[in-house]
Sequence to fold (388 residues):
Amino acid sequence: MALQREKQRISSSEVLQALADGEDIRLEGCTISGDLDVKRLFVKDESFDTSRMEVGSRDETSVATFSQSIVFNSCIFEGDICFAGPWDKTDELTVIFKRDIGFNSSCFQGQTRFDGVVFRGLAGFDGCTFQRVVGFRHADFGARALFRTARFDGYGLFSGAVFGKEVRFTNTCFSKGGNFTGVRFGERADFGGCHSGSKAMPIYESVHFVRRRHGDEETFWRFVKQACTEAGYYQLAGESFYHERCANFWRRFKCLDRGDSSPAKRPARLLRAVRLLPEFIFGRLLFGYGERPTRVLVTGVLIIIVCAMFYASPYAEVRYRSDDQCSQLSPMDGLYFSTITFTTLGFGDLYPDQTNLTTRSVAMAEAISGACLMALFVVCLAKRFSRG
Fold:
């Protein structure tokens, strides 16, 4: 037995009874009237036949398992859709979909709730329109989850959700923002082209990416960056830009392992890896992609102190302009000489002995690093304070 209809008007009670009977459901272009609330199956006044329904309990939580194939293509849901417990007691009911479930290109005119639902098969919501609040709080997506070209006209709640496999939000619009607090992404999360239809900024505290060293979160941070920029939160946009660039670096780094492993290709892969090394040291660690000016400042101070300790040691030979003989500098004079060397100021009252190659080499290296770090620091400050 199966519930198959096309371009018809069907009551939600008929759909609920088909769910309880374990029938396959395939509706194409249909309109479902009334509230499709799975809790109605447990209300005695509703008079549903649940004798064939797979119902259990776990830690004082009712568990309803649906093993049939469920497809709602291009359907219109006029009422609320609820496959969860009440808003304030979501743990009272857990719904499990064992097989693939699809709502592709459907329109949800009422509230939509899949809080705590376990999707063991594909969860397809491509092209859906959610006109009111939609909740996937603490949902468990065991297989792929697809929300491509979907539109969230209401607030999207994904807090605490677990995406065990790939999830795609490609070209999805969050008109009133979304909540991704505590979301766990097990594999690639594709937010390419995802955007906000207003100045609503998504909430993304404690978002966890299992494969951070694969760069799978790059498009997520790009989406957050664009939303923060449009909303005027430029500091948060800068932080998102930093995470985006880090993810981009790790993605390019991991791509080196995906190529041809033949011996003839190894020198080329090694060369590409060496080319990424300066970006990793200067761009990511030191410069912070322009978002970490304090790193540049701290690095400069450390270089000045270390070089000052060297200049004040017996291994260095620094001459006073007024003295023909080399003498060991005091700690204060060593710090003074290190500072004017780092800043390339050079008053000329102190200079490294021309016969001591080590001292001259350290002075040259400090001068070069000082010129570079000061330029980076200025760029960092200009980038952070010129936004908006």
